[in-house]
Design a protein that fits this description.
alpha+beta, Gyrase A, domain 2, six-stranded antiparallel sheet, five-stranded antiparallel sheet, Sarcosine oxidase subunit gamma
Length: 182
């Protein structure tokens, strides 16, 4: 049997948090940075099996697959089941650009009653439930690192960051979680 490389996050196995916040490294996922004009959205939505959101701070979800609106013609597609997103998009038959960023990104799950306060310690966005509801997603910063923030539940966020910044982001989140726990 041939050796098979198994991908694992740069911060695999790291846990952190406090009594009010839990920090965990998300399982590996397939990710694609997607760019497309408005005229291509229907075909791409069909190829992915879910509608691409077309408004700021929104997302779409079907099963283990999420599509996050990042800009007027830009989305981050995440498949937590590890599906071959590039194969799915290759059959779209329409103008688009898709780049596999599965190895570039790492996700940290921030959950618990202090999750919002933890993220607010390093993120300038208003993360209150009224301004950033469940399903909201945006590109923003945490400390000095660019992240994509996705609110998956009322008290749970998925923080996508480049693997090269993951240790910094996790450490800063851990510090903020301890502050939120007091």
């Amino acid at each position: 049997m041939a050796d098979v490389a198994i991908r694992k996050p740069a911060i695999a196995g790291r846990l952190g948090g406090s009594a009010a916040v839990r920090l965990t490294t998300a399982s590996t996922a397939s990710r694609v940075a997607l760019r497309a004009p408005a005229g291509s959205l229907a075909a791409i939505s069909s190829a992915l099996g879910l509608a691409l959101p077309d408004a700021p701070k929104t997302s779409g979800r079907a099963g283990a697959r999420s599509v996050l609106w990042i800009g007027p013609d830009e989305w981050l597609v995440i498949d937590e089941a590890g599906a071959d997103l590039m194969a799915a998009l290759s059959g779209a038959g329409t103008l688009h650009s898709a780049t596999d960023v599965s190895h570039r990104n790492v996700a940290i799950i921030v959950s618990g009653p202090g999750a919002e306060a933890t993220l607010s310690a390093g993120c300038p966005q208003d993360l209150s439930l009224s301004s950033f509801p469940v399903g909201a997603a945006s590109r923003t910063i945490f400390g000095k690192a660019e992240i994509v923030l996705f609110r998956t539940e009322e008290d749970t966020f998925r923080v996508e960051c480049w693997r090269s910044f993951s240790d910094y982001v996790f450490g800063l989140l851990n510090e903020a979680a301890h502050d939120a726990g007091h």
